[in-house]
Amino acid sequence: MEKGDEKIHKNKVHRVLAHSYTVYLVLFLVGVCLDFIFKIKLFSDSVMLPVGFFFLLLSSALIVWAQKTGRDLRKYTEIKKEHFSKGPYSYTRVPTQWGLFLLMLGFGIIANALFVILTTILSFLIARFMFLDKHDKFLIEKYGEAYAEYKKLVKF
Questions:
Q1: I need a labelling partner for 154 at 20 to 30 A (CA). Which of 11, 42, 69, 135 fits?
Q2: How many CB atoms lie within 10 A of CB 113?
Q3: In degrees rounded to 5, what are phi and psi of residue 154?
Q4: Is-contact 70 144, C-beta < 8 A?
Q5: 3-state SS record for the chain
Q6: What is the pLDDT of residues 53-80, one digit of tens each?
Q7: How many CB atoms within 10 Å of residue 136?
Q8: pLDDT in the model for residue 5
Q9: How far apart are CA 99 and CA 24, in angstroms?
Q10: What percent of the chain has pLDDT over 90?
């Protein structure tokens, strides 16, 4: 693949991911506003606080791990399916999406905010069904059979 082609594919992938992350942000803000207006609480006591903090810590570690592992892919000149199956990418093709989901969910649980939790779930579903198929398509265009084989191994 030519250097210019690689940049075009990278921009396409990053654009899709940026749109996905924007959906998370916008719906998060909608959820926060709705929680300020309606003040519906899910939990009567603070029993869920440790769960929320656990999600915050787990998600932060997952996002950092995914970003570091993703940068390591640049080291290879010839990409093979094994190169994709490192770190959190051996469990999911989109660990940053999972991290973002758990981060927002953890915040919603800590804040005891029904609408933040609902919009977090909605954001995840929108990202999954609207953006991640495009993401996979661009990566198959960029990396070819290596990514297609990886996609068969790691379902989500």
A1: 11
A2: 23
A3: -110, 105
A4: no
A5: CCHHHHHHHHHHHHHHHHHHHHHHHHHHHHHHHHHHHHCCCCCCCHHHHHHHHHHHHHHHHHHHHHHHHHHHHHHCCCCCHHHHCCHHHHCCCCHHHHHHHHHHHHHHHHHCCHHHHHHHHHHHHHHHHHHHHHHHHHHHHHHCHHHHHHHHHCCC
A6: 999 999 999 999 999 888 877 777 677 7
A7: 18
A8: 52
A9: 12
A10: 51
Q: What is the pLDDT of residues 98-126, one digit of tens each?
A: 999 999 999 999 999 999 999 999 999 99
Q: 């082609």: which residue's tokens?
A: 5
32 pLDDT above the threshold of 60: yes
- For the record, the structure tokens of 70 come out as 């993703």
Look up residue 75 and give its two tokens: 């080291």
Lookup: tokens for 72: 């390591």
Please name the residue that has the structure tokens 């790691």.
Answer: 154
Q: Name the amino acid, one letter, at 2.
A: E
